[in-house]
Design goal:
This protein has about 300 residues and is of the alpha/beta class. The chain is built from 12 helices and 8 strands. One of its GO terms (biological process) is proteolysis.
């Protein structure tokens, strides 16, 4: 009996790596305008599209730094947006908001999901909100992870906090009448010069260093360089949130100065649950188990 049990345990142990591999896959998906998008699927449960931030980053920073805890409860679909990460760029330089939303919808149809959840992080909140606004019938719920829905408002937070960290007047960094986006570059340079950049996203510099180690500057950065030429990304998306009557979970960080620790208070979702955590910009990295707990409880209440 004992020998039989040991044999079963051995067989099960040898199969576990294969089972884990079967739950993960990656491939390239071709959009209707012939852009190759890198897609990775991992985990089990309700399908959930992760919409990464940046703008111009890639989703590896999420699943490699603790975000993969949600794969225990959800089937996560990670896609490198066009012009980002491992995906190709647009030959026609089409990085419009409408095209990004269309990419997500084409991928949903290709994968055969009737509905899915959306989990945007940071700048990804803009695209998730537009997608849910246009395709509410295809969305089961939204999980906003420290997301901005008004980029100019978030940039103001960044510049103001940057001035505090640098111990200089805001007026020294942001001249009257100057667009806040123009002031941002100077703030970032000064913070980098003094080794204080991490304070905009984290309380712990080691976590900032870990995040930077995941990033690879040799990856595609076309979207990140061209997005600022599209005015639609600068709109105040909070105005649309009142019309999105889907279940929503919103994460915010008390020390998240890259988005703004009180930015979430401008959201107007009719069916929202808010979780303000003792973190900076990346709660999945700083408090992964607590992050998973809140996500799991939210998902359990969905139909």
């Amino acid at each position: 009996m004992k020998k039989t049990l040991l044999m079963l345990l051995f067989i099960l142990g040898s199969l576990l790596p294969q089972l884990a591999q079967a739950q993960q896959k990656h491939f390239y998906f071709t959009t209707s305008d012939n852009v190759q998008l890198y897609v990775r699927i991992a985990g089990e449960g309700k399908p959930c599209l992760f919409i990464h931030g940046g703008p111009g980053s890639w989703p590896k920073y999420f699943y490699a730094l603790g975000g993969d805890v949600v794969e225990q409860d959800l089937q996560m679909i990670y896609v490198d947006q066009r012009g980002c990460g491992r995906s190709g760029g647009s030959e026609k330089d089409d990085y419009s908001l409408a095209r990004m939303v269309q990419d997500f919808e084409e991928l949903r149809q290709y994968l055969g999901y009737d509905k899915w959840l959306l989990m945007p992080h940071s700048f990804g909140g803009t695209m998730a909100t537009e997608y849910a606004y246009q395709h509410p019938q295809q969305v089961q719920g939204l999980i906003y992870v420290n997301s901005t829905l008004n980029i100019n408002n978030s940039l103001e937070s960044y510049v103001n906090e940057g001035a505090r960290v640098l111990q200089v007047p805001v007026s020294e960094l942001h001249k009257p009448g100057e667009p806040v986006g123009q002031a941002l570059g100077g703030v970032v340079n000064k913070l980098n010069e003094q080794g204080l950049m991490y304070k905009m996203m984290y309380r712990d510099k080691a976590m900032f260093d870990a995040m930077n180690a995941v990033m690879d500057t040799t990856l595609n950065w076309q979207f990140g360089s061209k997005v600022w030429g599209y005015q639609e990304y600068a709109q105040d998306f909070t105005a649309k949130t009142a019309s999105i009557k889907l279940p929503v979970l919103v994460f915010a960080g008390k020390y998240d100065y890259s988005v703004g620790p009180e930015h979430y208070k401008s959201f107007k979702f009719p069916k929202a649950t808010y979780r303000v955590m003792e973190t900076g910009h990346c709660p999945y990295q700083e408090q992964p188990e607590q992050f998973r707990k809140y996500v799991k409880a939210f998902v359990a209440k969905l139909d």
